[in-house]
Specification:
Length: 574
């Protein structure tokens, strides 16, 4: 492999690492604490804050305009839009942007309010999205949230058609625990603590902050996603009723008489700009999914994709053989009618059936990216066997004391610094190369873990420390082989080539065996063990790359490009 190709690969990986690690660095070091608190709020709270902040900003601009003042610096982001509006209206641009001139750039105050709200909404939702791409600190380091869920015995009774025995209830709770674990820990690196409590309750402790929406995300789909045929005539009458009586609701006004038996009224919802469910209308669907629908239990796979025409997120899912056959029959018998996608008793999407769908492959739209991803995850992990209700949610502190964490981190930093100093003292310039490779190795590990939204616990840190030790060991083996070649009288270039060739299989053998062990641990273990194993596996791959590729590139550059005839690798060999 040429030096240019190796350099290109290294630079590409560094660029990837920087992009993956940037959200973590930005969140922990550059986002103010007040902004973090807002980003961790619910979307309803974010909406209330953005609208309230927009009203305050508009009041400030009104006051500045009444006083004849210029635009306050914190609202200067409005000037470019006002400038564009002046040009569109073919007005002369003001020499100085006063608050009065700025407000004249909008049709009315309602438009100015909308622009302000959109700005504040975008800033906080962008931070909320950023938080989903960072390395979280585990329960032992920073605490998290504790959620207590209670199984709904009445719901299980309705599903079984009889009172469940204690054994059946216990089995349903156990299965629900496993499904929830799969939903929360989709990559095996979140390390939640899930345990069964008394009275058919489940206690979940998740690293991170008190965010109810995170809990609702993995509880999505308490019942499976089902397909229901829409009762067209009753829905048309219901839509006319809603047009005549805005704000009508079956919960308050009762179900109209024209809604036939065997059907139910469900709300059709979409997501607004904040990602909050917003009711569009009420519709009437057939309640019986045996004759007028299909149970989502036949879904075998679900993936998020993009609509090629609109580029909006879609959920593509596949039905098993029986489900495909029933779905084909259902669509063939209901061409011209509408079919609704129902989840958690809400219609998420519905559309008219144009033709029979015989393939068992279905695509549904009407979701944003986050909602589509959550729905796909729920469909892949199956429905909960029993409804679970949140009975308590609270913040829990770190399981380790602040003093223990501080001492542990100081010990890690001191050990890392001593390794760097030792390598420079013992191996001179070659030690400096090893240190650069070591730092790059650590950077790659954190970048990969950040890309997968890893939760960093003490066990994960232990995996990183072990990896650092193995990376140093690999460089020591390589350097000693180079020194042996150098002592035989070979030139610098030949010594480097011979040293790397002889050390290659020694380094590979040690790392591959450990990597295999890490893979077994990641599959057989769970929680902290799995987190340690995955961190170790990532670190091994990274350390092999930095030792065999990055370090070699530095040596080849010195001997081939700079034409160095001597190596600075030991005190008596330089």
């Amino acid at each position: 492999m040429s030096k240019r190709l190796r350099l290109s690969i290294i630079l590409a990986l560094v660029a990837f690492g920087a992009a993956a690690f940037y959200p973590t660095v930005r969140w922990y070091f550059f986002v103010p604490e007040s902004q973090k608190q807002l980003a961790q709020s619910s979307r309803i709270e974010i909406r209330d804050w953005a609208q309230g902040r927009a009203r305050e900003a508009l009041d400030d601009l009104r006051g500045a305009a009444a006083a004849g003042e210029t635009v306050p610096p914190e609202y200067s982001f409005l000037i470019p839009q006002a400038r564009d509006a002046y040009r569109a209206m073919e007005k002369t641009l003001p020499d100085e942007w006063s608050a009065t001139a700025l407000l004249r750039g909008f049709r009315d105050e309602a438009e100015a309010f909308e622009v302000l709200e959109r700005k504040y909404r975008h800033d906080i939702l962008e931070l909320k999205d950023l938080k989903d791409r960072i390395i979280l600190l585990g329960l032992d380091l920073s605490g998290g949230i504790s959620v207590t869920l209670e199984a709904d015995e009445q719901n299980l009774t309705e599903r079984l058609g009889r009172q469940p025995s204690q054994t059946e209830m216990s089995e349903a709770v156990d299965l629900a625990m496993e499904i929830i674990r799969n939903r929360i820990d989709r990559f095996g690196v979140t390390e939640p603590q899930i345990r069964e409590a008394e009275n058919n309750r489940i206690v979940i402790e998740i690293p991170g902050d008190d965010d109810r929406e995170r809990v609702n995300a993995f509880l999505l789909g308490r019942g499976s996603l089902n397909f229901h045929i829409v009762h067209g005539d009753a829905t048309d009458q219901l839509i006319r009723l809603q047009n005549e009586q805005p704000g009508w609701s079956p919960d308050i006004d009762g179900v109209p008489e024209f809604v036939p038996a065997g059907t139910v009224v469900r709300e059709y919802v979409t997501r607004d700009a904040y990602g909050i469910d917003e009711r569009v209308r009420w519709i009437v669907i057939y309640d019986d999914i045996v004759e007028h629908g299909l149970d989502g239990q036949y879904i075998t796979d679900a993936q998020v994709a993009r609509d090629p025409l609109t580029n909006r997120p879609t959920v593509n899912f596949v039905l098993d053989a029986q489900g495909a056959e029933e779905f084909a029959l259902l669509t063939r018998d209901n061409v011209g009618n509408s079919m609704a996608i129902v989840m958690d008793e809400k219609v998420r999407a519905y559309a008219r059936i144009q033709e029979e769908i015989p393939t068992g492959q279905v695509r549904i739209t009407g979701f944003d990216q986050e909602q589509a991803a959550n729905i796909a995850l729920v469909l892949r992990t199956a429905a909960l066997p029993v409804n679970l209700e949140i009975v308590n949610q609270q913040v829990v502190g770190a399981t380790l004391g602040a003093g223990a964490i501080r001492v542990g981190l100081q010990s890690i930093a001191l050990g890392f610094a001593l390794i760097i100093v030792f390598m420079v003292i013992y191996y001179k310039r070659a030690g400096l190369i090893a240190d650069v490779a070591l730092v790059l190795n650590l950077f790659f590990i954190l970048a990969v873990l950040s890309a997968f939204n890893l939760t960093l616990t003490l066990t994960s840190v232990a995996g990183i420390i072990l990896t650092v030790g193995m990376a140093v060991d690999a460089n020591v083996i390589i350097f000693e082989r180079i020194k042996e070649e150098y002592r035989l009288g070979k030139g610098a270039r030949s010594a480097v080539r011979g040293g790397f060739d002889k050390a290659f299989w020694t380094v590979m053998d040690a790392n591959i065996t450990t990597f295999i062990a890490a893979l077994f641990l990641s599959q057989l273990g769970s929680g902290p063990i799995q987190g340690f194993a995955i961190t170790l596996a990532v670190g091994i791959l990274s350390s092999m790359f930095t030792a065999l590729v990055v370090t070699r590139l530095f040596f080849d550059f010195a001997t081939d490009t700079l034409r160095r005839s001597k190596l600075s690798i030991a005190w008596r060999l330089s």
